[in-house]
Automatic annotation (TrEMBL):
It comes from Paenibacillus azoreducens. Residues 10-307 form the ATPase BadF/BadG/BcrA/BcrD type domain. Keywords: Kinase, Transferase. One of its GO terms (molecular function) is kinase activity. This is N-acetylmuramic acid/N-acetylglucosamine kinase.
């Protein structure tokens, strides 16, 4: 007899993948972690492998827990005892059935992405011998938003190495803006800010722009001597998205010291992020509604100018918006989405 668990929830992010088995109340029964599931960065096969590893580890922990027979809290003996009966037949290498499997996966931006990622999901489930009555796949940003707001109306703005905006209104309709990657987008992100800083240094060197304290700061950080060496670094094998994003901290440092160029870069970053958020508000008809704005990512959490300017922009056009920071991990959003599907079937 194949063992059954109500819910498999997976947060497949660009940094890590977290898979969780949960009961009908959203309580975590077991979890497994692995590396990046973003196929656009890691590659399709490596991403599929990490997804498989996370599910397999969660399944292994579930089997161990079932074998040990962990005792439930006294306040919830009946429901937990039922969960133990459901998981009693689970083995690490045997089949497992879930009523609902929900995946929030990074890199799901287009219909082509959906086809690739849904293929990865089917492959990972087959490899781990997990079957599901229903499978739901969505972008991990939607999961982060639902986890932060508990399913209530809100807009999530992520500005870390990259940037993207998601929104959900009181009818449950969702929309996104940005997230097109470092080559053609990610405005307002750490990478974008670092790239603007390099551009400002080279413009100053040419005489096309004003002198900026960013020159000395960037050269010292990268161990370079001249602007020409900075140019060579940009086109060398040493250059990377992450290393460029690290330069954002020196833009913030220069701004706090009164550098006008650095200040302009950060102000523009905030304005770009708000453009994306305002687009989401417009798509969802939220401008006059009450909702929460969730700010995530290193740029928004560590840079007061960007955060404060963005908050002021929201107050000017949407006075009922509440600016807040996410207090829950994205996996809770995936679980919440799964519970909704279990209870309502849509």
């Amino acid at each position: 007899m194949t063992a059954t668990v109500p819910l498999l929830a997976v947060d497949g992010g660009g940094t890590k993948c977290l898979a969780v088995f949960a009961d009908t109340e959203g309580r975590m029964l077991a979890s497994g972690r692995a590396g990046s599931c973003n196929y656009q960065g890691a590659g399709r096969e490596p991403a599929a492998l990490e997804l498989t590893r996370a599910i397999q580890e969660a399944k292994r922990q579930l089997a161990v827990s079932a074998a040990v027979g962990n005792k439930p809290p006294e306040s919830d003996v009946e429901s937990a005892s039922l969960a133990q009966k459901e998981t009693a037949n689970i083995t690490e290498d045997g089949p497992l059935h879930v009523t609902c499997a929900v995946f929030g996966v990074a890199g799901l931006d287009t219909e082509h992405d959906r086809q690739v990622i849904e293929g990865m999901v089917r492959e990972a489930l087959a490899r781990t011998e997990v079957t599901a009555d229903r499978i739901f796949v969505e972008n991990d940003g939607v999961a982060a938003l639902l986890g932060a707001t508990g399913g209530a109306p809100g807009i999530l703005i992520i500005a870390g190495t990259g940037s993207i905006m998601f929104g959900i209104n009181d009818q449950g309709k969702s929309a996104r803006s940005g997230g097109w990657g470092h080559r053609i987008g990610d405005e307002g992100s750490g990478y974008w800010i670092g790239k603007q800083a390099i551009n400002a240094v080279l413009r100053g060197f040419d005489g096309r722009g004003s002198h900026t304290a960013l020159t000395g700061k960037l050269l010292r950080h990268l161990g370079l001597r001249t602007e020409e060496e900075l140019f060579n670094w940009v086109y060398s094998a040493e250059y990377s998205v992450n290393k460029t994003a690290e330069l954002a901290r020196y833009v913030s440092e220069a701004e706090q010291e009164g550098d006008e160029i650095a200040c302009l870069i950060l102000e523009t970053a905030a304005d770009e992020l708000f453009l994306g958020a305002r687009s989401v508000m417009s798509k969802l008809g939220m401008a006059t509604a009450s909702f929460t704005v969730i700010l995530q990512g290193g740029v928004l959490q560590n840079n007061p100018l960007v955060r404060n300017r963005l908050a002021a922009a929201f107050r000017s056009v949407s006075p009922l918006a509440l600016i807040d920071e996410a207090k829950k991990e994205p996996i809770y959003g995936v679980i919440a989405q799964g519970l909704q599907l279990l209870r309502h079937g849509n």
